[in-house]
Amino acid sequence: MNKKRVVIGMSGASGAPYALQVVQTLLGRGDTVHIILTEAAWRVLKEEHGWVLSNREAFLQSQFKGLPGELIYHPLKDIGASIASGSFQCDAMVVIPCSMGTLAKLAHGLSTNLLERTVDVMLKEKRKLVIVPREMPLSAIHLENMLKLAQNGAHILPAMPAFYHEPRSVEDMVRFVAGKVLDSIEVEHQLYKRWEGGK
């Protein structure tokens, strides 16, 4: 199996389960995951998962304990982290979920924190970048920002579960979106049943 090095950025939109499934799958394969979370992302994890956040890095590591891959946590304010440089080599970056506030900053090239700076690096180096927006309905401003990022090489993959694989649970729907994200960065997985043609 070809090992990957992937950067995961989590911002403050609802949809943390999508990110956690992607991280779990990557680490389960033995890949290396560099992860950045915004302050709003930590709040979402508290609200959606009940996470206790007194020691963020240790708690995050404990959630994926026992998996063969390596999880490297980067504080949001560490603008000098390895992943902030164009010389850092990685296979892809995924921003999942991506809030509309973060989307706007990314579309306009702002680099006020490590997540934004790392996306800026991915764009300027023309590396694989996947943005997973999670909002509805979408305003014209949101759509314009997505278009701007797409025109600059980002892959826009909205968190839109499908039903052709006959999901039986919320987890099945989460796994579908996570699987589509992994497809887009060329990672093998078995998260959902693929379409094999009509009956």
TrEMBL record:
Catalytic activity: dimethylallyl phosphate + FMNH2 = prenylated FMNH2 + phosphate
Residue sites binding dimethylallyl phosphate per the record: 164, 180
Coiled coil: none
GO molecular function list: carboxy-lyase activity; flavin prenyltransferase activity
Annotated positions binding FMN: 12-14, 38, 99-102, 134
NCBIfam families: PRK06029.1, ubiX_pad
Primary role: Flavin prenyltransferase that catalyzes the synthesis of the prenylated FMN cofactor (prenyl-FMN) for 4-hydroxy-3-polyprenylbenzoic acid decarboxylase UbiD. The prenyltransferase is metal-independent and links a dimethylallyl moiety from dimethylallyl monophosphate (DMAP) to the flavin N5 and C6 atoms of FMN.
Family: Belongs to the UbiX/PAD1 family.
Protein name (database record): Flavin prenyltransferase UbiX
Annotated organism of origin: Polycladospora coralii
Classification lineage: Bacteria, Bacillati, Bacillota, Bacilli, Bacillales
